[in-house]
Amino acid sequence: MNFMKVFWAALAAVVVGGILSGLFWLLTILGIVGAVGSSNAVAVMPNSILRIDLADNITDSPAINPFAGMDLTSMEPTRTLPLLKVLRAIETAATDDRIKGIYLNFAEGGTVSTAALEEIRQALVDFKSSGKFILAFNDTYSQGGYYLASVADKIYIQPEGGFNWKGLASTLIFYKGALDKLGVSAEVFRPTVCKYKSAVEPYILTQMSEANRRQMNDLMNSTWNTICTTVADARGTTVEALNKIASTTPTLFPEQALEHNLVDGIIYRDQMEEIFAELGVEKNFLGEFEYISLGDYCANVSADMSNLSAPKVGIVYAEGGIVDGENDGMDGNIYGTTLANTIAKARKDESIKAVVLRVNSPGGSALASDVIWREVELLKAVKPVIVSMGAYAASGGYYISCPADAIVANKMTLTGSIGVFGIMLEGGDMLKNKLGITTDVAKTNPSADFGTGILGMTVRKPTALEKALLIRSVDKVYESFTTKVATGRNLDIKKVLDIAEGRVWSGADAVANGLADANGGLKAAIAIAADKANIADNFRVEEVLGEMSPIAAFMQSLGMQAKSLAMDEQTRQIYNEYNLLKKHIPQSSVQAYCPYVISL
Q: Which residues pair with 406 in a beta bridge?
């Protein structure tokens, strides 16, 4: 009897505790949603100035994970703006009578890739044809911020501000020394010809190989030339002059920036109001100028609903590292089976007449890449497929792109890296000497325990036979990869082998060597897709998204977008590389992966 009383009392406590806990988290979620929702409710007033401050995170694809990268220390949400929405907002502002012009005033608290900056800048170039002004003022200018600001009619800087113009660098981190100290050895398997496939170098070398140094210098020089050419054309100077500044005065005082025609004036922030007034912008009834941020303006811009019956161009997003299996992608990765299913969804939708596959991926699993490649092939058989390359479309990211009818790459896209590798970390000595962990095995055949691991590492070195099998495996995948590129791009196999070898190319160089068809962004790819489907005169764009988990769907129905953790690009690169390799190494699978990033 006493037992039953205790049992029912305990059960009631568990139920009540669960309900209270659920209510607590629901109220927390609704509070976060309310914070985000209130920021989306800003109206566009007459005589407004659209302020682009780069304070929001700009991503290729719409966020599907409501908690993605949330700063759990502050629980403060912020907007994540899909690139397509940003481009639509700038295009809409050109014809919006309430918007008098654009003010580039960077907080730079958000994250944005170099390729996205390139597309936003082109949208601003198009905006200028409206006759409305674009002005830039900042206390300091980073290279990325100035690259975007160079589109402005006039550029201003604070009298005690700063100006950085120093060129590009990509610092690689090598782990071999740490692995040696831990007693961990890396077994690497890659085709002999893939001398540029350098994703494995941090685990077997202490510095860049000559081949890798050559490709990285070529890549940075190509990207830097794109930036300098763009800025030189906008500011009436030369690439040579900009390079001289970078080499002799990497940090300029405002007076030096003015002397070199990099800015048009040295003023204080409040003096911008005089300039706005001179351009005919009127103040509101409180005697203040009306500003609306890019994020708030995006919240006011919706898709065109006037032609709902028009044929569609579908956009499918491939963003993140490529891994095996099926998942909703809330961890930021591309799952091969899941993306293939999404592409199949677009293929079977008869209202979609063409598809743009937006690829922003450094690659990953060769198997998952092949699963996606097959579905792109099936899609291409029934409707046009155009690939739009974002910051990355390298290695596995290029693998899934090569079957397309056309490939459009931003000039600063990192692409190519046509090559594969396998890597195994063997930690038997580390486990024994550092942790006191040993293993033993009973087996029926010599390789029955091949790949057996603990803590993401194998416990023994591969035998000569196992090494030979792994080498044959990477050779086979490389042959398949290059053959598919040759077929998809209609290139001679000798040409493909010459530009492959795991080498990374810029988007500008990719057009020159045949790996891409044109330089441009997402809007250009959409226009090409509509043209190839013969619907250019009347079409609408629809994003084709994968199935979300119940919690993600619920959160999105509440209109929530969560904060992306603020990281500099170098930290983000290391974090993403670690997580991707953590998934890959235990699989002992062949990888088509390129880890590099260039930051402005």
A: 386
How far is it, in rounded angstroms, from Cα 412 to Cα 115? 6
pLDDT value for 20:
52
The full set of domain ranges for the chain reads 34-165+249-300
Residue 438 CB contacts under 8 Å (≥ 6 apart), including other chains:
431, 432
- Cα 249 to Cα 156, 221, 259, 599: the distances in Å are 19, 19, 12, 20
Q: Specify the 3-state DSSP secondary structure of 157.
A: strand
* Upper half-sphere CA count for residue 440 (Cβ side, 13 Å): 1
- What is the pLDDT averaged over residues 412-418? 96
Q: Which CATH number fits domain 34-165+249-300: 2.30.30.40, 3.90.226.10, 3.10.350.10, 3.90.550.10?
A: 3.90.226.10
Q: Is the pLDDT of residue 500 over 70?
A: yes
Q: Give the side-chain half-sphere CA count within 13 A for 458.
A: 20
Catalytic hit among 197, 312, 353, 563: 197
Spatial distance between the Cα atoms of 400 and 104, rounded to a whole number of angstroms: 36
Strands (E), 395-492: 406-409, 414-416, 422-426, 453-454, 457-458
Distance separating alpha carbons of residues 71 and 412, to the nearest angstrom = 30
For position 398, what pLDDT does the model report?
Answer: 97
Residue matched to tokens 């782990």: 175
Give the mean pLDDT of 448-476. 88
Cβ pair 263, 155 in contact under 8 A = yes
Asked whether 513 and 505 are in contact (CB, 8 A), the reply is yes
What are 136's strand-pairing partners? Answer: 104, 155
Comparing 427 with 348, which gets the higher pLDDT?
A: 348
Would you call 395 a catalytic residue per the annotation?
A: yes
Please state the pTM of the whole predicted model.
0.85
Q: How confident is the model at residue 69 (pLDDT cuts 50, 70, 90)?
A: very low
Q: In this predicted model, what pLDDT tens digit does every residue of 169-218 receive, in sequence order? A: 988 999 999 999 989 999 889 999 999 999 899 999 999 999 999 999 99
Query: What percent of the chain stands above pLDDT 90?
Result: 67
Which SS3 state, helix, strand or coil, does residue 482 take? Answer: helix
Mapping DSSP to helix (H, G, I), strand (E, B) and coil, where does residue 255 land? helix
SS (H, E, C) 235-271: HCCCHHHHHHHHHHCCEECHHHHHHCCCCCEECCHHH
The catalytic position among 395, 401, 588, 589 is 395
Residues whose CB is less than 8 angstroms from the CB of residue 590 and which lie 6 or more positions away in sequence, other chains included: 365, 366, 367, 420, 421, 422, 473, 474, 477
Neighbours of 249 (CB within 10 A): 15
* Cα diameter, the chain: 92
Report how far residue 27's alpha carbon sits from residue 20's, in angstroms, rounded to the nearest whole number: 10
Distance of CA 434 to the CA centre of its chain: 38
382 touches 352 (CB < 8 A): no
